[in-house]
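Async update (no meeting this week)

Hi team, since we skipped the sync, here's where things stand on the single-chain job. The sequence we agreed to prioritize is pasted below, unchanged from the tracker. I ran it this morning and attached the output directly underneath so nobody has to dig for it. Comments welcome in thread, and please keep replies under the output.
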Amino acid sequence: MTVSFSEGFKEHYYTSEDGLKLYAREYGADVSSDALPIVCLPGLTRNSGDFHLFALKVAHHPTRPRKVFTFDLRGRGKSAWDDHKENYNPVMEAKDVVTGCQALGIKKAVFIGTSRGGLVMHIIMTFAPDLMAAAVLNDVGPALAREGLELIQTYLKVPPAKVTSWDLAVQGAKFVHGTFFTAFNEQDWVDMAHASLVETPDGLKAPVDPAIAIEIAKADLSKPLIELWDQFELFKSIPLLTIRGETSLLLSEEIVEKMKARNPAMETIVVKGQGHAPFLHMAGLDESILDLADKAQA
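Output:
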C-alpha cells in the first residue's frame, strides 16, 4: 500500500536573501523532546519527496522521535524558479538553507545531504559550522567519480517522456534504475515514482526548473572536476556518516577510502542492492542515522 506523499507534514515558506520564495516541510511538529532536529537536503533535480518515508519513520519513532525538516532547493519542488539561472549553484543553495534554518528557528541540527545536498553541506560548513551537529553524506563526497557524472548527463540529455499514469511512472523508474536497485520490491518502485513526480494538468512531471538539468547536461566533463577536500576536512569536528549504494557509480569505493584516510572517525555504510542514491527509510538506515544523532546529542 502506497503511503500518501502529500500528507504528514507542516508546510513552511520563507524568503531567500535575494527575494525568492522557498519551501520547506516540517515532520513531527508535535514532537516536544529536546532532541536535535534533522535537516534533509535533496539531490540535483530532486525534492522533499525523497525523504518523505524516512521523515515519517523518524518523526513517529516509538522511542526516540525527532523533528525532521526537508528543504526544496531553489528551482525544485515547491520552491520558486530563479530567473537568474546562474544562481543554481551550491554556494547560493547553502545560503538559502542557512536562511531557512534561521526562519524556522533551527539553531543546530543533524544534516543529511543526498548527492547535490551533500555538496551544499560542504559549503555550509565553511560559513555556518555551528549549525551542524552531525552530518550524513548520502552517496556523495568531496569528489565525484566521472563515470557517475557521465551517467547522470546521459539521463539529463534525454527529453522527459510524457507520463500519463503512475503505472507508466513505475515502469520508467524500473527501466532507468533497475540495474542498480536490485533490492527493490514492487512497492519500492512505486515509492520511488511518487517521491520524484507530481500530478499536473499535463501528466506526471518532476517538479524542477528544466534549466538545472540543461546546465549539467552540457557541462564539459573532459575538464578537471571540482573537488571539495578542504571543505571535507571541516567535518572532522563533528560525527560523520557516509552512506554508499553498493552499485553506485557516483561515489566510488576509491573515493570512500580516501575520505576514511582523511577522517578515520568517519562511519561508513554500504547499502546492498541499491545505487545512487540509497533510500534512507530502508535497510535500517533510519536507525543508524538516529544512532549518529544520539552520539551528537551526548
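Quick observations from my side:
The radius of gyration is 18 Å.
The mean pLDDT is 95.
Reply here if anything looks off.
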